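Here is one chain, start to finish.
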Amino acid sequence: MTATNVDATAVNTIGWLSAADRTIVVPVYQRQYRWDIGACEQLLADIRAVADLDDRHMHFIGSVLSSASGQGEDAELVLIDGQQRTTTLMLLVAALHHTVRDVEPAMADELQRVLVHAKDRSRTKLRPHQAWAAVFERVVLDLPLSDTEQRDSRFDDNYAFFRSQISLDEAPRIWRGLQKLEHVAITLGAGANAQQIFESLNSTGEPLRDHELIHNYVLMGLTHAQQREIESAYWQPIEQNTGEAIADFWRQYLTMTTGREVTIVGGRGVYDAFRHVFPRWEYADLLRAADEWRALSRVYRTLLQPSQAPDAEIARHLGYLNTFGSKMYPLVMRAYRDFELGTLDRAELLATLEMVQALLVRRSVVGTGVDRLVARLCRAREGGPEELVTAISRITPSDERVAVALKYSELPHASYILGRIAGVDGTGELDLEHVFPLAPGDAWSGDGVRTWAAYSEDEQNSHRALAKTLGNLTVLEEELAQRAFDRSFPEKKALYARSAVPATADLAKAPSWGTAAIAARSQLLTARFVEIWRRPGGPAIDDDGLTPILDAVRRRGWPAGWQREWSYVEYCGEHWEVHDVKHLFNRIFKRLWADSRGSVLTYSARRGGPVYTAESWNGQWDRLDDDHSLYMGWDSSYMLSAVQGVLDEAGLAPEVFVKYSYIGDAM
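Its structure:
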């Protein structure tokens, strides 16, 4: 039986593009071309990988859905699904063609057959939406820019990326890889329902999540026996250990491994990062890696359920750590695994857990937040214990700053802080008690003489301002707390005296309760606070919430607000009024061109840009000297990646920071 309205055939992609001498049309209802440099980079990596394999191996790029229209010279193939891949392949072929056309005429002719019609080489085979057709044709045909035209499109950016990455020496390899691409060509007849078929290809079923993609990636290409071994001996234990948190486990594992934050882009950033860390492996290498994953998943289970830790003191501190969520798991996971392996002793592990708690609680108290911290600490730990202490010290607020916040600001994680100050191991049976109540009645009194109704407006406001601060809070047994609720202070004193919590029982000794008593108690408890959560290292360095350049967030494309993403940049002690990545990219490369030219040339040679000896294609260029130019036509993600890479090459990355603006934090 054969289908009457659908013809699906597995084809060689380059052969399919070369053979058809009809125009491939992108219909007007299709979305704009959206592939960014990151997607192009992955495609090029796949092509390089398959090029290096023997002739039995091909690379499948999916399906292309189209419908035929017209006859003869007017024949068209209307793309219903596959526009993004087809367009990107055309840009790659164009870049390859322009690289070899003057020195490899035979290859250039084959490439040209992919790009243009045989009878009219001024017509590209692919015709995008008419709003972008002229730009696409200019790029593919390598036409000069008009005086009024600006080079500012995804076509230009992605073409420039391919052009920068393909050297003349590598051209045969890329061409070999391109010729090993395959897809399923699905052509619809007149009676087919194009929308229904499109939806069935793109919308049926639940999209695979990151950890499911990782699972498939690990197992594909193995024999059935090898798959069963990995699945039963490694993957199933990992799933059992991590449960619903398996996606977070992989993200935090990769942060731990790479020392870089894993950016979630398009719902699969973790999978992309995993592929980058593990591009290919032999089976023996896979077994070694899987053994580490399984061991770390056991550690992760202990972090999630601290009571499973065999050491009671360590279990207690892991429980404390969970007060702040899982943001520090990458650092703690590695430390705990080293403890299991015997390369970190018990005292060192406990000291690490205490330092991390001090960092988190102090930053929470002063309100600076704890995002984008853990990757830099993972990097520092690789440099040894002293570097880790220095890194934590730099971002831990000083005693003085903490004291001010504790006196005037609402106390975060109040039960945890008060419980540890009071020496209470866990506060599960204790309630948080406000000595001065949050909503006092008119009859409430702090001394048994004056009632709340008699307080002036300023006095009432002063009390309210301190109601949630450290000095006005304590922990109290549940039964006593219920009886103390909203009572005047003289009545509460008798209940406090019955508490088994020493810090609460001491409140019964106070003659009255008001703003002076709250301030005095705040000072007393603050002294205890800074003893428990000591700031490690030497003199305090207040980094004002600065983010190391290596932890700056990569954005796709040019999102709204990109021009004001940062308030400023700190470069090796210099304060730069630089607010966006394009300005920073230009300034960093020009500065390093003057100060560390060798680093720029080494990085650019390894990465294939962004510094070139010739302006080999139309675009946005900035001259560095008579022989070198900086290409400025990249997208924001590539520019930031280049800034990070060249600073790392120059050894300056630890000394460069960005300060996110309100807009940048909201992006």
